[in-house]
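Work Package 3 (structural annotation) set out to generate three-dimensional models for the target panel prioritized at the project kickoff. During this period the team completed the workflow that converts sequence records into discrete structure tokens, so that structures can be stored uniformly alongside our sequence database. As a representative example, we reproduce one entry of 434 residues exactly as it appears in the project archive.
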Amino acid sequence: MNLFECIRLAFSSLIANKLRALLTMLGIIIGVSAVITITTLGSSLQKTLSASFDKMGMNYISMYVTQKDYEEENAYLTSDDAIKAEQMYGLVNEYPDRFAVVLNEDFGESEIINENNETIKNSLTGIADGYLDYASLKIVRGRNITQADCAGLKHTALVSDIFVGQYFNKNDNPIGQTLEFTMSDGVSQKFTIVGVYHYSMAMQGKFDPNTPEIEKVTPVYIPYDTAMSLKGMPANEQYWANMMIKPGYDFNESADILRSYFDELYSQNKYWRLEYYDPHNDFKIINTVLLVVTCVIAIIAMISLLVGGVGVMNIMLVSVTERTKEIGIRKALGAKNSNIRLQFVVESIIICLTGGVIGILIGVINGFIVKIAAELIIKYANQDIAEVLTLTVSPSIIAIMISVFFSMMIGIFFGYYPANKAAKMNPIDALRYD
């Protein structure tokens, strides 16, 4: 009797006893589906967090000036120790598609009156060209603030889509319009609108539900250097700054390039150096915790597979008893002990593998059900989070492979004893069995 014949007989036996076979598989199905569901949710949560981190603009490196030797008493910060704008733009010019400068400075509260004599309050903020990516804001019309706007101290501005609805008529084109904003100190400043961005309540803050549309305060973004110049402050010197790493580039490789570039600039500084903060390190810690928790819960869930294996052994022992005469006839016709043993071990493996495959399918389906439920909860409970939250269902291929292998091993381990018992039967006693 070859292997294929054993497989055919195993399926024939399962089909002949459908209900018993299904109940036998139930422990395996529950165990495998629990493991796949847990690992799918863990893997999906990791990828969801990763995608959400990217959407939230976490691809940046923070730099700040810190003392080399804290015991040095003669170390005083001077303008020579600051991070210079030309240094940051020097890196951008060297890698124009990889990096962007992220700077922002609050300029102050302002207000402007529209054609309906309604007062619209705003907050003016100076930004560099990389700020919108850093803040995960999207341009819906026009363009972004550029390096040329900053270098030329231009009075250009980005306004929100909410502001456009507050100030302009429905068919008006805001791009190119010059508006005069009155600051809280009474001084007026004129800015020309070059772009409109989508106001993100998830990133910039929600409004009170009772706030009238005209009273919603949104930021107006102007060039960073312009804001610093109007405040009478040097725009070229920062002791803390961010550099954005643009999508499409390896983050770790880009971070190494950035560190090497600035470390070289500060290599000759006697007292001061740059310290770097990478938000991805926090993400790695979260990922590690999720991985550990997922593995621990999955291992606990796998205990149910052992319970299922005991059920398989029990049913196989019953099957051997029921088929005693069949075993006796096979042995009388010349079947070897190894043939009988292989027949029942294969049947046990088929039961466990079939249960494992069904469990895998149920586990993956459970993952998609959880995704649909989570999307509905987010939609009706906190819709603003949907802007930055990208739900992903990602079944773990490794967990699926391990589950299939483990199911087969359970079939062999718990099927061997009944199979061996069948193989050792005396054919004469087996034929006499009633």
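The longest strand covers residues 104-113.
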